[in-house]
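_Backbone structure tokens_
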Amino acid sequence: MWRDARDLILRPPLLALAAALLASGVITAFSAVRAPLPVTQVESVAMTVSDMDRAVDFYTRVLTFEKLTDREVSGDSYEHLWGLFGVRVRAVRLRLGDEQLELLQFLAPGGRPIAADSRSNDRWFQHVAIIVSDMSAAYARLRSFNVQYGSSAPQRLPDWNPNAGGIEAFYFRDPDGHNLEILAFPPGKGLPKWHDPSGRLFLGIDHTAIVVSNTEQSLRFYRDTLGMRVVGSSENYGPEQEHLNNVFGAHLRITALRAAHGPGIEFLEY
């Protein structure tokens, strides 16, 4: 958990990945060491919201996150962290299972909303993937709250795809338009903890996915520089993928990476 602007934060478009880079010597590693950095954890995923109370209500009431902390931060160090003058931010920390999400409302200065024509194959696209124990029940719950659809309906990825076959997925959006995904893994896929009976419907955050233009170039940063490990890959296409991403002719190269702890990072190269 970052407690001060001096902590290091990885910041792709739309969301922030707060990485635990607190191992001894990590600062000098940026300039002096060519070996991968000792990144041990993606500590949380953060997103900017326009109305904190509305966002907290959505994540806690609809998706059953637990609220952990609620604070305001300001000052010179945070201005330099975010590159904004006169910044004042309300930050709320939420937890689902073992993973954490941080919501940030910029009280000053205000920011811009997500573009109305934003699409799943845009370079700034990013989603948070939440694991569910029962896709049908989770989908019914989301429908009962009238969530905004990102997919036409839940999709079961085809069995011809050995690394993705049998996975069920559905895209939807939070009140600010941030993309979210619910995922259900079949036996033999996903982390073992996603198959432990718990009686809960929403289990935790498996990964955050980002669209990249060049997988090899992105691997040079996340794998070769930061030291994250590649844990899986697949090539996804066909009508199920088109309906999942809401992109006609969607054909993706997907690469999954992880540190030792925390959510993974997934590349989506269209």
About this structure: The chain has a mean pLDDT of 89.
